[in-house]
Amino acid sequence: MSKTLIRGAQVLGGDVQDVLIDGETIAEVGTGLSAEGATVIEADGQILLPGLVDLHTHLREPGREDSETVLTGTRAAASGGFTAVFAMANTHPVADTAGVVEQVYRLGKESGYCDVQPIGAVTVGLEGKKLAELGAMHDSAAGVTVFSDDGKCVDDAVIMRRALEYVKAFGGVVAQHAQEPRLTEGAQMNEGVVSAELGLGGWPAVAEESIIARDVLLAEHVGSRVHICHLSTAGSVEIVRWAKSRGIDVTAEVTPHHLLLTDELVRSYNPVYKVNPPLRTEKDVLALREALADGTIDIVATDHAPHPHEDKDCEWAAAAMGMVGLETALSVVQQTMVETGLLDWAGVADRMSFAPARIGRATGHGRPVSAGEPANLTLVDPAYRGVVDPADFASRSRNTPYEGRELPGRVTHTFLRGRATVVDGKLA
Amino acid sequence: MMRHLISAADLTRDDAVQILDTAEEMARVADRPIKKLPTLRGRTICNLFFEDSTRTRISFEAAEKRLSADVINFAAKGSSVSKGESLKDTAQTLEAMGVDAVVIRHGASGAPFRLATSGWIDAPVINAGDGTHQHPTQALLDAFTMRRRLVGRDAGLGQDLAGKRITLVGDVLHSRVARSNVDLLHTLGAEVTLVAPPTLVPVGVETWPCEVSYDLDRVLPKSDAVMMLRVQRERMNAAFFPTEREYSRRYGLDGERMAKMPEHAIVMHPGPMVRGMEITAEVADSDRCTAVEQVANGVSVRMAVLYLLLGGNDSDSAVTHTRTEENK
């Protein structure tokens, strides 16, 4: 097997070290390591992180291969420094059986760019009425541990309670898309000053917060763990903070776009800013950053949601919701969290690798950078500055809100079990 | 003048007064036996209506024809929003046919803005109503009607609505007419009060340049004009208010309430009126109600907008034509 020596990188943003990869594992971490027989990567000034893990990705296959496939999505993931992604269940057909999750799992293995861990649907067809075969999906080759009807809220309190109880048998977690459906009928954007002016249907913060409040209480009652997807409001932060202080087993994620963008952008009526949950206000953005820094929000997850051009090149109301995010996530986190002094690189490693791997039980990922561990690694040049050009994306879709925007940082190398998937910023 | 007319908020005071003054000139054409000016001869205007609105379409069509433009009416009713690409494709088809301006009505807020700013077409875009967002020519015709009634037809030239107290009553939440009027009337110096049940006032209204009241009876004595907004019957089923009768009791305008208004005050309605619920027949048919005048004024105002957007830079202006012909 081949050897690679990463020379002089700041491991987790801390000490400058050499890291020797031998085959699929990290052989040695130290200073002045021998380069004999190894490909050498000079990593002066670069940050070495454990391979990033995304707990919330939409790969669209099966069913919408025109927007993304497992192959193109995992190439995008590798470009963004990810070594594992959790693929959401809202495909066509829905990933609500062992057959579909095994298919996605197998496609991930075949792609070779990034491990794909399928998420199973909570309910049959995401319809919120009948539990899907959660146990069969867990027992399948895909070994599903995370269940979500993402895109739709499990709004029936009884179904949610049963799902939370049921997955305890195999250590699963239910990831909730918190959106009270009646309060968000016809919703197009955050309800507030901007929606009032633009005449677009409002998505009130309380529609998210009321579901989170209910679900943390349900999780407490049945003694299970619940994960809150793409938390987006200051009020949601308060509820999660309270639940954690009470000892409730809740985890939460925030997307990069909710850390950076606000609903003021919707004034352009450009559907590239249309996303669910919607972009909120400056006050929300600052509360989310703070909560990610203090650990109230556990992780960053991309909610990478690819859509073909024609689904965005239209009037706002007709446009699909969602943004691609795998290839810009780390840069946005660097800008909003690291360069603001809220989080150091060790904190980034925690929020984007250790913690998501722990929540999703992704064995082999989110491991320390030390000898004997799987060589899932990401090397970042934090000094880089570049303007986002969607034409450079590996994702099949281009619906990024950052086109033309300068973002810091660049993933120069990604290693999946010792094999380079990205070299010098290009897919290997 | 600007290139497009998308939102009443985009108009400066001077722009708005210029449109109203030009509309007065245009109104003279309607008084003549041959109601036509050659101003837009050889220009093609498309009325692109993705949402039904016979009144607005006919008003624009009359305005276009009085300015001698060639008119194409395109009714793309119904399914357009579900097939998102149709707006872009339709626009590009029209552009390819050499259309000089597009008047668009669309059920989706922001559709005219997208049309004007996405590089899909080059032609000027005039918003004839988009979703619950804006309906700027409606606001202009309302302001025109108010200026005529409250300031005077000739005395009003060059004037705005400074100090006039205007009350808008009804479904503000879903009303593009309310949004447009709040913006324009504020620009013209009027003091605007919105009156509605709290369920029909948008969250975020506190940043609007107007007052909000839930009590119609207290506002009426201080109003120079009271504009009733259309309330759609289906709102009742969505629990915005308990019953039609209760709405009518609290927010409907009947003769008794009208009597609380100052003597000079007018009652306005963008039409079509739901008689009995939001306005009684007694009020609708009184000479204080300007609903019919508003329709006539709509044509003059739309002529002014089309002229200023499309012909305003030509040396032989419509206004010159009007005066020349009158001097003959």
TrEMBL record, chain A:
Its EC number is 3.5.2.3. Residues 45-233 form the Dihydroorotase catalytic domain. The lineage of its organism: Bacteria, Bacillati, Actinomycetota, Actinomycetes, Kitasatosporales. Its cofactor is Zn(2+). Catalyzes the reversible cyclization of carbamoyl aspartate to dihydroorotate. The keyword Metal-binding applies. Binds 2 Zn(2+) ions per subunit. Keywords: Hydrolase, Metal-binding, Pyrimidine biosynthesis, Zinc. It comes from the Bacteria. It catalyses: (S)-dihydroorotate + H2O = N-carbamoyl-L-aspartate + H(+). Zn(2+) 1 binds at H56, H58, D150, D303. The keyword Transit peptide does not apply. Zn(2+) 2 binds at D150, H177, H230. The active site is at D303. One of its GO terms (cellular component) is cytoplasm. Gene3D superfamilies: Metal-dependent hydrolases, Urease, subunit C, domain 1. One of its GO terms (biological process) is 'de novo' UMP biosynthetic process. Pathway: Pyrimidine metabolism; UMP biosynthesis via de novo pathway; (S)-dihydroorotate from bicarbonate: step 3/3. CDD domains: DHOase_IIa (cd01317). InterPro entries: DHOase (IPR004722), DHOase/Allantoinase_Hydrolase (IPR050138), DHOase_cat (IPR024403), Dihydroorotase_CS (IPR002195), Metal-dep_hydrolase_composite (IPR011059), Metal_Hydrolase (IPR032466). Substrate binds at H58, L59, R60, N90, N276, H307. This is Dihydroorotase. GO terms for molecular function: allantoinase activity; dihydroorotase activity; zinc ion binding. Belongs to the metallo-dependent hydrolases superfamily. DHOase family. Class I DHOase subfamily. It holds the Pfam family DHOase.
From TrEMBL, chain B:
HAMAP family: Asp_carb_tr (MF_00001). Residues 3-147 form the Aspartate/ornithine carbamoyltransferase carbamoyl-P binding domain. The gene is pyrB. Pathway: Pyrimidine metabolism; UMP biosynthesis via de novo pathway; (S)-dihydroorotate from bicarbonate: step 2/3. Heterododecamer (2C3:3R2) of six catalytic PyrB chains organized as two trimers (C3), and six regulatory PyrI chains organized as three dimers (R2). The lineage of its organism: Bacteria, Bacillati, Actinomycetota, Actinomycetes, Kitasatosporales. Keywords: Pyrimidine biosynthesis, Transferase. L-aspartate binds at K83, R176, R230. GO terms for cellular component: cytosol. The keyword Transferase applies. Belongs to the aspartate/ornithine carbamoyltransferase superfamily. ATCase family. SUPFAM superfamilies: Aspartate/ornithine carbamoyltransferase (SSF53671). One of its GO terms (biological process) is amino acid metabolic process. Catalyzes the condensation of carbamoyl phosphate and aspartate to form carbamoyl aspartate and inorganic phosphate, the committed step in the de novo pyrimidine nucleotide biosynthesis pathway. It comes from the Bacteria. This is Aspartate carbamoyltransferase. Its EC number is 2.1.3.2. Signal peptide: none annotated.
